[in-house]
Amino acid sequence: MKVLSGMRPTGKLHLGHYFGVIKNWIELQEKHETLFMIADWHALTTNYKNTEQIKENVEQVMIDWITLGLDPKKSILFVQSEVKEELELFLIFSMITPKSWLEWNPTYKDMKLNLLKISDLELSFKGGLRDLVKEFLAKVPYQVEDFEALEDMLLDTVSDTFIRAVFEGMLEPELLKRLNVSKRDFYDTDTYGFLGYPVLQAVDILIYKADAVPVGEDQLPHIELSREIARKFNQLYGEIFPEPKALLTETPRLLGIDGRKMSKSYNNAIFFADDKEEVRQKVMRFFTDPQKLRKGDPGRPHICPVFFYHRLFTEGEKTKQIEADCMSGALGCVDCKRIMFDSLEKFLEPIRERRREVEKSIAEIKEVFQEGSKKAREIAKKTLEEVKERIKL
What we know:
The chain is mainly alpha-helical. The protein contains 17 helices and five strands.
């Protein structure tokens, strides 16, 4: 089975990247034909104004991938922008992809609302409009075949209109100030590239004729869109593309030091490039059970981010004792963090040492990715030749 996946270059990788993505990739490369891509073009979709760090971020991802165990002898490791054939197929796919497929893609809308931090605004509009939409549909002088689907479509359309009206100043201008966003922010994310990036994702998958893509549930709409585009092309011009399937991955949602999902944007991550003292300081800032204020108070380890790390990094029997001591109040949070730090360091220290060695060989690492990009490009060229032949270009 041919498996493809990729990662946008946002800089140095952290623990969340490893447990959420890389660990699974390493297992896949032992069993399947695998291609892993640094998606630098995708970095432009939301960050086109700040491109200064993209090259440096690509290098950091290269270093971390090799450090963590992705093996160029077992996988094709490459950089997206080195395969120019992707752009040509992107243009062709864009000609056959209905705009509605992109606008109805839930991930597109979710990303846009999250970038602008206006998800709550959309929910409030939908909540207020739902009864009115139901009442309207009840009065439609035609038979409604799928009431729920039509209701959702109307709610999306009307709430989008209200959001646009907010940014155009048609609704309470003070609202934008309270939300701390502007009309410019709204239209800066309303680009052709941002709308069409799922088509480029489809190209990423289909140009290499990947059979499967490892994803979390939130990425399923993108895989389905890739399947739709493959089906439409095959129906129009003849069978070329396999319909890729999603490999759903069950991975722990690694928490950051503030109890939220670990993310560079939240400034709550532990990076593999962090030195021992940086890690220690971050561990000591970890959120804990808010009801356990002092040693002696009974704790609730099942909701504590620190205990989550004990389950990952501390030996089994010791973890059980920590759980019991926390619940009884015998173990305070400061001591609990110190034990967790020691356990975490046993995992991080050899990786940190290997990363230092890999970093010294950045020229050789770049060559590895150049070779991988050549291999990827050869596959892409063959696919594009087939496509051009089928569409008579």
